[in-house]
Amino acid sequence: MKHRNSLVPVRAIVGAVLLAASSLALAQYIWIDDKGVKQLSDRPPPASVPEKRILKAPGKAPFNPNAPAEAEPAANTAEAEPAAKRPPTLAERNADFNKRKTEAAAAEKKAADEARQKADTAANCDAARKNQQALADGIRISNYDKNGERGVMSDQERAEMATKNQKVLAGCK
Asked: How far is 65 from 75, CA to CA, in rounded Å?
């Protein structure tokens, strides 16, 4: 039994050493590197990392994202880094999405209207070319008067129709 009592002081010393060493294991550093990635290490960050990007260090209070921002002295605004923009809120992102959605719908409608107008113009130009060809060939063309009676176009009416067709064809490509 004497042997067991002699180990108690040794165990107490070993326990105290382990307890002291375990506090060193808690000495961790957390910082954000140049790419915006959070880094964890038991060694201090490089000297190029500014103090404001070190989130946790031994002897420094841990980073609290809910804490109010400290006012930085604006000694020289030309040398000061630009203030980081706050991330947009959900409402702002939703409003931006809705704005892009309505702009895309308006652009799509405008493109559809332009395509329809272009197709109508092409059809009108094609009809005017056919009419001009018929007028130039001397084919007898009939028309209807206001009473609904059918008659043949006179030379004067042909000339008027040819003039109108020329104006329409002038706008065609």
From this structure: 25
Q: Cβ atoms within 10 A of the Cβ of 124, count?
A: 14
Q: Cα separation of 102 and 128, whole Å?
A: 39
Query: Residues 6-24: what's their mean pLDDT?
Result: 77
Q: What is the mean pLDDT of residues 96-124?
A: 95
What's the pLDDT score for residue 4?
A: 62
Query: Cβ-count burial of 77 within 10 angstroms (0-12 exposed, 13-18 middle, 19+ buried)?
Result: exposed
Using the 8-state DSSP alphabet, how is residue 125 labeled? H
Model-level pTM?
0.41
The answer for 36, left when phi > 0, alpha when psi is -120 to 50, beta otherwise, is: left
Backbone conformation region of residue 151, classed left if phi is above 0, alpha if psi is from -120 to 50, else beta: beta
Taking alpha carbons only, the member of 121, 141, 122 closest to residue 131 is 141
Tokens of 47: 């000297």
With contact defined as beta carbons under 8 Å apart, do 30 and 61 qualify?
no
Measured distance CA(106)–CA(99) in Å, rounded: 11
